[in-house]
Amino acid sequence: MKILVLAEINNGELAEDQTSKTVSAAATLGKVDVLCASSQCSDASKNITKMENVENVLVLEDELFAQSLAESYSETLIDTINSYSHVFAPSSSFGKNVLPRIGGMLDVMVISDVSKVISEDTFERPVYAGNAIQTVQSVDKVKLISVRTSNYSAVPLTGSANIKKIDCKSNNTLTTFIENKMQTSDRPELTSAKVVVSGGRGVGSKENFEIIEGLADKLGAAVGASRAAVDSGFAPNDWQVGQTGKVVAPDLYVAVGISGAIQHLAGMKDSKVIVAINKDEEAPIFQVADFGLVDDLFKAVPEIEKKV
Amino acid sequence: MKILVPVKRVLDYNVKARVKADGSGIDLANVKMSMNPFDEIALEEAIRIKEKGNAEEIIAVSIGVQQNQETLRTALAMGADRAILVVAADDVHNDIEPLTVANILAAIALKEGPSLILCGKQAIDNDFNATAQMLSAKLKWSQATFASEIDVKKDMVRVTREVDGGLQTIDAKIPAVISVDLRLNEPRYASLPNIMKAKRKPLEEISPADLGVEITQRLKIINTKEPDSREAGLILENIDQLVEKIQENVGG
């Protein structure tokens, strides 16, 4: 068994939380190598060497990998990847983009969104928007696994892995990067935040969403939204929590004006403590909340913001 | 140019999935089935590209059981020009894995020669999010996933992608495989006259063997179970109690 983890690096910056939790999932099977491919690797690779259970950090520094385009991986690194029996990546937009393309190249299935590594060939993953959990056994020679990182904790930084530079002939004639428009925010990142405050359809408008943002900022929290709120244009898609959005598991999740559709619950029900505020006492969100308040959010939330 | 749109028949978005007692999967007997919502968005986009004069023909493809022809009739009523049904299973419970779907679609693409293949980013049943990426790898075409904006130019297509943290714009060389995200568009409803017209549009039925593709299963389903449920908690009486609970759990 030889295990590889694809580190997520955006523009030279390591997505440490995602990568560390992916290492954590992979390390349930043994020691791992981590592939660090980016335009600048020095900081990222140094951080990775400290992650527990990492043996080697394979470093490929190439401008081609600045934006992690799928073709750069599949055209350039396929031989390196193919020399491993297990390849893990976070189930982020990076992993979901790159890993299945590698699967197509190697003619193996991808095991998406794995919530539990059971053994070297058996994995648990949610299906039907989290309405069921399926255990699957892979017969492929290479196992390609994207990890639902919210189910794993980051690894301690007690390791001292070796750095190995690798050389590949870079190639991507198919896609060209044009630009990134990233949300700049002082708030913590949604998938790794300790506290998340989310708004739903009940918030009513984009302007009203400031109430949610106000409470989030007071708590030092990330802002989330239900799919209904995103579909209605109250919040950007990037904030969407749920099966078709992000999966989060913070210490505290505050759901405001969210009814609790199964689609949404699939993205947040592993949170440690869930608090729900909704004026409809029949709302399904109260079935999963640890603490609920039946109240008008426009009255309650500003008052909470003042008092916390 | 031609656009190929694969459409999957899945358990309707509004129907609650129930796990079968024997753990083999979800019960799909006698429940409402519909076109995968993401595939509807892909089809809508193809129709809009054609309406702008950037495409001549839209071919909808569905892979699964005989009844998938209903899904294809819906696609034809929305605006696809013709349809291909690949009958790959005789039981609706036999889900065809994305890798096999990609093999079938690649064979069809080589025959039909589309410039674009527009896919939904994931099917809402198996939630793999893999077919488009695998298909573009099989064809060695460019790949643009999670599209929220598509602009077809002469030799390439400019795609804005929904990525973690924001939006990324790339140019993908044509032919390209694009997977679409939720906010790309809002799919139309088929009008009654178009539903009637769709009945006369061509629908070809073939088998995977006709395309030289073997149905394989790489992931054996060992068990399917209900997720662990959370216990309902406490309904608090006032805001002060809630503030107290929030304070206890912030940074805890």
Model description:
- The complex is a heterodimer of chains A (308) and B (252).
- Chain A is α/β, with parallel strands linked by helices.
- Chain A has helices at 16-26, 42-49, 70-76, 78-82, 93-106, 209-219, 227-231, 262-268, 285-288, 297-307, and strands at 3-6, 9-10, 13-14, 32-38, 54-61, 86-90, 110-114, 116-117, 122-127, 132-138, 143-147, 162-165, 175-182, 195-199, 222-225, 252-256, 273-278, 291-294.
- In chain A, helix 3 (70-76) runs parallel beside helix 5 and helix 6 packs parallel to helix 10 (297-307).
- Chain B has 252 residues and is α/β, with parallel strands linked by helices.
- At the A-B interface, helix 3, helix 5, strand 7, strand 9 and strand 10 of A face helix 3, helix 4, strand 7, strand 8 and strand 9 of B.
- Strand 18 of chain A pairs parallel with strand 13 (234-236) of chain B, so a sheet runs across the interface.
